[in-house]
Amino acid sequence: MPLSRRDFLRVAGAGAAGAAAIGAGGCSFGIGGNDSDKPNILLVIADTLRADHVGTFGGAVHTPNIDRLAADGVRFTRVYPEAMVTVPARRSIYTGRRIFPFRDYAPRPDLGTSPGWEPITDVRHTLVSALNDAGYWTAQVTDNPWTGFTKSYRPFRLSFDRFISVEGYVGFRRPPSTISERELLHWLPRGLRTDRYLKGVRKFLANTGAGHDERQSCTARVFETAINVLNEAQTKRPFAMMVDCYEPHEPWVPERKYVEMYGDPDYHGPEPSVPKYARADYLRPDVLHRMKVVYSAAVTRMDHWFGMFLERFHELGLDENTIVLFLGDHGILLGERGWTGKIPPVLHPEMVHVPFFVNRPDGKLRGTDDEYYASTHDVAPTLLGMAGLNPAPWMEGVDLSPIFDGRRPPARDMAYGGYYNRHYIRTPEWVYMADNRVEEQKLFDLVLDPEESIDVAAEHPDVLKEMNERLLAQIGGKPAPYYD
């Protein structure tokens, strides 16, 4: 007889060392002895969401639903992922451990060849396992192609009571042949019409409504599915639900009503639905600008459907006893600094600054900002701490929940992390970037140059040395160089 998801986890590691214990976390409010007294947990992840494209974090993009939710919590304004991009970030989020510097990396056929793109091999040591052991009903809805569909992540999926993978980026919902050549080329300007993009975007258009029917978009189907799971979750209290929405990851094919919020309504040229991970000169300036428009439109559409989910969340009264944590995993370059895509040597805010906020159901510290250097590996211990549970000893992140009781988390005077063969350090005064062999170093003076536009590495060899030494002290030796 096949194992249930919960049985699978129990067989894999019931009573794992460090299982969370009730009532010992940094912020135990409303916690009693019964399961029904425990707060529910909602974790929402948006892929490729830049902080400067979320209104509440100072962006000019229309995100009213995210903004309203963030207004009820604590916004962490200096959040930088410790490991990028998609899969390393998920490993960091779900395990509470630092994934950078990607040591002992072994490529997996279904995950590619980028360092850090590995499975969570021990499902006994995850946020999900800790919550399962504490009596939570656990669920996730995602269209993430990697965690939601690959063989490598099947054990992780089985560790939930309910896990639903939504096709769109993966699979064939409609034949790609249903997309005409004219419709395809509308979403691919010259410079992007290679076999790779023609094939991939045609399939995506067929799967997602082709920019005409937003109910068929990935973001709509993720949050509509999440509403259905939420209806089930509210009968399973306490529950821990995770919604991992892959949008606004490219391709971007938002409907016209969203595009016209940001672009010239008289524009009739091609829409750049995908970026090359390259220098931006493959596109004309007007088309490059249009890339920012379609990305912004995709962000607003995601926010709209997230709002539909939140409406049901409030209808069920779940806001009264649910902890909410929302974050992005990394950003993307849309022509800034002369690049498009996710470029390892360009670890500036467009790539590494992400939205992150935490809400208590009692509204404590509502609408406040905090400049603590939070990161992706802090998510798991923070959620456990807010639920009144002990973060597991194998978690390396910081429990941020003491701030709700007027206490500060352990001091953290810098942020650091890595992507592929590059790494960064950020302090209040400096931004440092280097390749893993430390053959190329960059330095930016945040006091004199807050836009990070002038490399002053040659002028400050002492600071370069200090930054390199600080990194080595943190990660216990040189990071591994990954080069083709």
What would your notes on this structure say?
The chain has 484 residues and is α/β, with parallel strands linked by helices. The protein has helices at residues 5-13, 64-70, 86-95, 127-133, 154-158, 181-186, 195-208, 218-233, 256-259, 285-315, 349-352, 379-386, 461-475, and strands at residues 40-46, 74-79, 83-84, 137-142, 162-165, 239-245, 278-279, 322-328, 333-334, 339-341, 356-359, 368-374, 415-419, 422-426, 430-435, 441-445. The strands form 3 sheets. It has an 8-stranded mixed β-sheet with strand order 5-4-6-1-8-11-2-12, with helices on both faces. It has a 5-stranded mixed β-sheet with strand order 3-13-14-15-16. Strands 7-10-9 form a 3-stranded antiparallel β-sheet. Residues 1-26 have low confidence and may be disordered.
Q: Termini separation (Å)? A: 46 Å
What's the rounded overall pLDDT mean? 92
The best one-word shape is globular
For the sheet with most strands, the description reads:
8 strands, mixed
Please give the share of residues in helix: 25-40%
Across the major sheet, the strand order is 5-4-6-1-8-11-2-12
Order of helices and strands: HEHEEHHEHEHHHEHEHEEEHEEHEEEEH
Unreliable stretches, pLDDT < 50, 5 or more residues?
1-26
Number of strands: 16
Beta-strand share of residues: 15-25%
Structural class: alpha/beta
Radius of gyration: 22 Å
**Count of individual helical segments:** 13
